[in-house]
Amino acid sequence: MKQIVKNPEPTAFIEWKSKWETPPGWAEFDGTSMKQQVKSALLEEQGYLCCFCESRVGVNSGHIAHLFDRCNHPDLVLSYKNLLYSCRENPRGEPQTCGHSQGNKILPISPLDDGCETSFAYSEDGYIHGKDNSARDTIHILNLNGSNRLRESRRKVYEEICDNQDTLSPDEFARWITSELNRQSDGMFKEYWTTKKYAAGLYT
Question: What is the pLDDT along the chain (204 residues), one digit of tens a residue?
């Protein structure tokens, strides 16, 4: 789980909310051009990665997720600090993950928490492991090990890191992994960022 540092709330979103006589809710927001602007802002601050599993997401390949759900926390429905961008719903019959798996559960560890990245470990088979009960509960709530696609993607990333460690000199590998972990010129981070960093031995 890559830590997300929230940017300031977009000025246009603040102004849009201020125009309502009573605070707008999700019904007023859903389907508007403002929702698209907020999606874009969330994607930019997350480097176009799902806030939970770190797979690639885009404006039309994900959804706005709430750290604290809409039903039990109506006052936070349009609070920018409560909004993240999660991957799309899986096809019918496949296990749901990330925001669609979370539902109305409160996460013990969120991607906004300091130290969230070092709360998890990654293994060569593509599984995520929690280092304590809070991390294990978070994995369970988000079902981060429940998708064959996610496990296989992380396994391939881990394998790539190990292969490059074996074939590149230490200096070459250091330059390569630094490039891999930096935000790319298109504003994106590489997928499964924390798996890369963990497999490279960069978490202490």
Answer: 999 999 999 999 999 999 999 999 999 999 999 999 999 999 999 999 999 999 999 988 999 999 999 999 999 999 999 999 999 887 777 889 999 999 999 999 999 999 999 999 999 999 999 999 999 999 999 999 999 999 999 999 999 999 999 999 999 999 999 999 999 999 999 999 999 999 999 997
Per the structure, the count of domains in the chain is 1
CB atoms within 10 A of CB 79: 14
Whether 59 maps to a domain, the answer reads yes
Range of the domain at 72: 11-199
Q: Using an 8 Å Cβ cutoff, are 44 and 83 in contact? A: no
Provide the whole-model pTM.
0.94
Helix (H) or strand (E) holding 85: strand 83-87
The answer to whether the CB of 67 falls within 8 A of the CB of 113 is no
**Could you tell me if residue 5 is inside a domain?**
no
Note whether residue 26 is domain-resident. yes
Closest alpha carbon to 119 in 108, 106, 133, 130? 130
